[in-house]
Amino acid sequence: MKKIASIICLILLINSFAFDVQADEDQNMGQEQKTVAEENETETEIGEDESQIKEENSGLENVEEESEVVEENAGIEEGALQQEAQDFSDNYVIWGTGRGITNETIQSKGNQYVAEQLKISNITLTIQQKEMIDLYCRNNGISGCNSGDLSAYAIPNAVFVKYENAWVFISEDKIYSVKSPILNAYIAANGANSLGAPVGEQYINNNCIYQAFENGNLTYTLEKTSDTLCVRRGNTYYFKYSIGSGEADRIITYGKKTDKTIVGDWDGDRTDTLCVRRENRYYIKNSLEPGEADIIVDYGKKTDQVYVGDWDGDGTDTLCVRRGNRYYIKNSLEPGEADIIVDYGKKTDQVYVGDWDGDGTDTLCVCRGNRYYIKNSLEPGEADIIVDYGKKTDQVYVGDWDGDEIDTLCVRRGNRYYIKNSLEPGEADEIIDYGKATDSVFAGMWIREEVINEPDIEELQFNSSLGVQFNSLTSGFAGNAVNGVSFRKNAITTFIDKNGNENQICAYYDYYGTIVLAKRVNNGSWTYEWTGLKGDITDAHNTVSVAVDGNGYIHLAWGQHAGGLNYARSEEPLSLKVSVKDMIGSLEDSVTYPEFYNLPDGDLFFLYRNGNAGNGNLVLNKYYAEQGVWERTQDNLISGEGERSPYWQATVDHSGKLHISWVWRETPDVSTNYNISYMVSTDSSGTEFTNSKGEIINLPVIEDTAEVICEIPPNSSLINQTSMTVDTNDMPYIVSYWRVNGAVQYNVIRFTGEQWIIYNTDIRNTDFVLSGTATQKLPCARPQILVKGAGEDASIFLLFRDDERNSYASVAKLSLNGTEIVTEKMIDISNSSLGEWEPNYDVNLWNQKGEIVLLVQKEFYTRDGLEERYRVENMYAVNISNICN
Q1: pLDDT tens digit sequence for 780-808
Q2: Rounded Cα gap, residues 199 and 187, in angstroms
Q3: Average pLDDT in the 250-277 region?
């Protein structure tokens, strides 16, 4: 019996999954792997002279330690092995046969591929449009046109002009701009083609910048930045980009040495620049460069004292002149009457300006001696905060020195600066030396985020001749496959409301790692919400999973690789605005592979691994939609016993039973994947499970009690976390790939109710080897399986991407003929390489309406954590239902 088991194992040599194979940095990395030779050394002399598998066909790059494949049994006829497998399993597990791509197979020949038409076109501005843009730019501190002539562009409902740090849009009689740094997120999202024109100006709240567009709301999370120092000598300015001593990071000349200088963020790009004052005329520069002023404005009188602040919280600094204890505040960079007039303090007070409470609005502080009277609103009255700091002879500067969005004080004595990071008395938090005691000094945020180049996005083409329907969403991060790995569950999903409307939701990461939620109703236009939630996109494990419960609430889990659980839920049914929530509160500190599964009654299952690669357990939660609460169903459904981890795929059948199949892995090295096991819950509660024979399994399931439906040894190129589904009779189907007869092959496993049948589809022809502890570049993606009908009449569809078909998105239609599986059709959906993309489809839409919609994106191979700059490509919703009729 042992001999037969070994032979079966050698047929099934496997590959561990491509993007999910990064080391989990646990203590098992040093464990020794079992080799195929060790499995077979006690019995068999079969095939000793057969040649080893050639590794030139592996297609792998950067594989750290390729395992040697021992192929002592490679010469055995497949039929003989299948017969021995039948004898070993008493016909409960048998091998069928496969008829792969033949001359009779309908392939994608002569098909027509089309792409969406670009929406942007070049136009010439009218005189009126030029005048509107010119006035808007003067009033909003926008300058630096890229060329002498204004290059203008048209999109539906608007025209726009691209400037150095802003794009200005005219829509009918309204004019708005998209400014840096939110401009970068807009450019990276291919926003002009997807989000459309802005319908309001951007604003800052809680360390985020927000802006509304025709097709959704964009959020840019501000990186933590801090103010630093600049010293002036004559008309030369020495800027320091960090708090500390040493040489200046930037040196420029501007204005005259007799000029008075003030500092502000004049264009709202989160960077301070210079302004020189000559009497009541102000020469404003929007970059740390010499040269002509970008804006010249007159305001107040030459005898006025002048202060700078963002008085209305719009992100742009403007002027305030003081006469005695009266302050005349202007909220735009233009002459004219003050917008606000306020009295505060005494005319003998020293005055400072800052955002003392972090609300995005600057207010006043008056100083008497070393006592500071701080006001958090532009109103007269008593101070909100009174604090003593330093000495009355100190020079004082205001800045956000630690990046917490709250301004505090710094006192200067000679060239030494005593910085306080809170509005409290006491010792300085930091003391630094910079410049000379005779220098004039300014505080500001000097580092400017450069506007990114517009991405070179490949417009994908799809097979229109076979009725494929598609449209693009915004662009998403494509530097690795974090938006496309197959275990997302789900990348895209549909909720059909009580009126029969199809609400399709998808989620993905943008250029900066912010989660974008998108929605369309009845195949209409997509609308978007940048959630403000972020994940580490350098690690392809940190996927976004999305689901919609029976009441229409959207659920998200994201950004977890052996880390704390991240979970959020929409604030209202079908709202794209989500809030971070708690789920259970226990066993949530080492979460990986979060997956939602919809139940027929509107509840949800939630599966995840608790632990690390080679040392983890499967946790099961259930969400009760009517009560709106999560409950723990299984602390430890499948246990690795501290020696191994399960890597699973699952599906919920029509009665709400949860079917789970899985492989084991003993170390972070992917070559240690082995065996495929199966179990199913007895009902929709998830509290009790059986094997395929209906025998109750003691929980947690461990290796000794798991039903093995397919024995596969380590070092077999077995892929994990592929796909599982059921037919209309709730019989399970599994697809995976591993080595059979010298080629890594797509293999389908089916349960008839009486026996398991394993089919070699015979679709693939080449071999490759996978081993090591980091994300690998594989020549084929993990496939997805869908089944229409039941029994011998079932139609089976495999969705995949394979180098053998130029890494196109492809679909194979298969049928059953007894124990034979036949490839009837092999059709390419796209006609250009999708790189590392793996198929994700809308499971709910398929289950409820029999339609197949894929979320497609071209994705690139990057080793986890090693890519600092990112790539983006368009996301596409692609309906291939016509192909699968």
Answers
A1: 999 999 999 999 999 999 999 999 999 99
A2: 17
A3: 94
Banded pLDDT at 773 (limits 50, 70, 90): low
Phi, psi of 87 (to 5 degrees): -60, -45
Residue 39 has pLDDT above 50, yes or no: no
Q: How far apart are CA 735 and CA 741, in angstroms?
A: 18
Instruction: Tally DSSP H helices, then E strands, for the chain.
Output: 7, 62
> The whole model's pTM is what?
0.83
**CA–CA separation, 660 and 648 (whole Å):** 7
Q: Judging by DSSP bridges, how do beta strands 260-264 and 273-278 pair with one another?
A: antiparallel
- The answer to whether 183 touches 451, Cβ cutoff 8 Å, is yes
Half-sphere exposure of 546 (CA within 13 A, CB side): 30
The CA-based diameter of the chain, rounded to the nearest angstrom, is 103
Write down the residue that tokens 């092995």 correspond to.
81
What are the backbone angles phi and psi of residue 319, rounded to the nearest 5°?
-100, 155
| Lowest mean pLDDT, pick from 559-563, 621-625, 646-650, 747-751 | 559-563
Average pLDDT of the chain? 87
Q: For the domain with range 228-444, which CATH number is right: 3.30.460.80, 1.10.10.10, 2.115.10.10, 3.50.50.60?
A: 2.115.10.10
Structural domain boundaries of the chain?
Answer: 97-102+468-879, 121-221, 228-444
Residue 462 CB: number of other CB atoms within 10 A? 27
Residue 560 predicted with pLDDT over 60: yes
Amino acid 82 reads: Q
CATH 2.130.10.10 fits 97-102+468-879, yes or no: yes
- 764-780 burial, b at 16+ Cβ within 10 Å, e below that, comes to bebbbbbbbbbbbbbbb
C-alpha 744/C-alpha 14 separation (Å) is: 7
Radius of gyration of the chain measured on its C-alpha atoms: 32
18-22, 307-311, 672-676: the lowest-pLDDT one: 18-22
